[in-house]
Structure formats: C-alpha cells, structure tokens
Amino acid sequence: MMELKDTVEMMLSSDYKERFKAEYWQLKIRYDKLQKMVDNWDNLDFTPTCPYSTYAHQLIAMEDYLMRLRYRAVLEEVELDD
Questions:
Q1: What is the pLDDT, as a whole number, of residue 69?
Q2: Residue 33: which of 79, 65, 1 has the closest Cα?
C-alpha cells in the first residue's frame, strides 16, 4: 500500500500528470485511513474530538472528490494504477 511519503517525489515533479497522480493518491490514502477509523468507531483506542456524523460527512466529500479526480484522469489520459 502506498503511503503519503511515497507521493513526495510525484508532487514535486515538473510533469503535471505526476502531480495529478500525487494529488489523487494523497486523497485516497487519507480517505482509506478515515474510512478505517469510521468502520472501527466502536473499538477505537481514543475518543474522537468530533461526532461520528462529522467524519461521515467528510468521507462523503472526499469520495466525491476522488470520483471527480478519476473522471478527470480518464479525460486527461492519466493512468492512476488504482
């Protein structure tokens, strides 16, 4: 699984397609981690600051953003290797 640190080189690239991939992967990594937290809500080893609904709404927004990036990738012929 890719980690945020693995996207640094892509983000610093002069190639916009590489920066696009970095943007996608950074969001995907954060989305997956937040989804895991929400899925394990009742078994967390800490008390979240925000209510469950706040995180759930954030996931919806992130999922929408991911979907739009995937659509753009198709239009711009960027291979995301998803």
A1: 98
A2: 1
Question: What DSSP string runs through the chain?
Answer: ---GGGGHHHHT-SSHHHHHHHHHHHHHHHHHHHHHHHHTGGG-SS--SS-HHHHHHHHHHHHHHHHHHHHHHHHHT-----
Q: Which amino acid is it at 47? A: T
Prediction pTM value = 0.92
Q: Which two tokens stand for residue 49?
A: 């600051």
Tokens of 60: 């919806």
Question: What's the token pair of residue 32?
Answer: 């997956």
Q: What's CA 41's distance to the chain center, in Å?
A: 19
Is the separation of the CB atoms in 24 and 69 below 8 Å?
yes
Q: What is the pLDDT of residues 68-81, one digit of tens each?
A: 999 999 999 999 98
Neighbours of 10 (CB within 10 A): 19
